[in-house]
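task queued by scheduler; priority normal; single chain, no ligands, no partner chains; default sampling; output format set to structure tokens
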Amino acid sequence: MNAILSRLRMYWALTKSLQTGLLLVTGLVGYFSARCPWHSNELVLALGVTLFLAIAGSTVLNMVWDRDIDAKMLRACQRPLPAGRISVREATVLGSVMVLLGIGGAWWLHPLYGALVLAGSFFDVVMYTMWLKRRTPWSIVWGGIAGAMPILAGRALGTGQVDAIGILLALAILFWIPTHILTFGIKYADQYRAAGVPIFPNTYGEWLTRVMVGLSTALAVVAMLVAAWQIRLPWNYFHLALWLGGALVGTAVWSAVRQSPTLNFVLYKFASLYMLAAMILIMLGVLEF
């Protein structure tokens, strides 16, 4: 029994549960933002399961492909694959089965939803990780597109189409992801350089990277607020989202001015908390409406 639990914990580690969980939340929020009058608990559960399988499975496959990079980085070398606690074959089978089940289940629920879930996995695993991550720091654009797919897919499942609000929500995620990734890259720039992965701080310099973080953060907040306005989010929730967004943009701008490692770490953490809080506010607002 202990051996089984230990194996399951290693599988769980391969999914990057916090990252997967946040993307799963965005997908659920995208669905509920449609205020679909005919949704059922079974459909919401199916949405959650299919998104989890596709997102987590894609992450496992990314971990398989990046195992040599992880082995060269102090922060990642103890992950199950580079540490040799799970075989490449086992992880590849696990990730592939999860992705196929997730995409297949999504397609069964609705072809458009399935196509968007498929696109998310393709952009994440093939475009971002396998093709561009080791070639150019601009790979984060494709990583951002992949990260934006769950909320767009969830919205599409609720509305039956890709609409303007879904695109705005997706853009909010797309522009938010550089804030998350680039602040992380600044913190671990030396390790990425040692692993041979091109990132913005090492390619264009830390100052320009911080300026880009400030711009992308502002665009993310604007897109989120416009989407919330279009969703007709109740004023009390919109007001909180406005203040949170302003605080995030202010922190990003201040980080660009001061270039403090401590402030960079605060921005990295605050960006994730902002996105989670924004999703919760939208969820509460649409359920209250």
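post-processing summary
- The chain has a mean pLDDT of 95.
- The first helix runs from residue 2 to 14.
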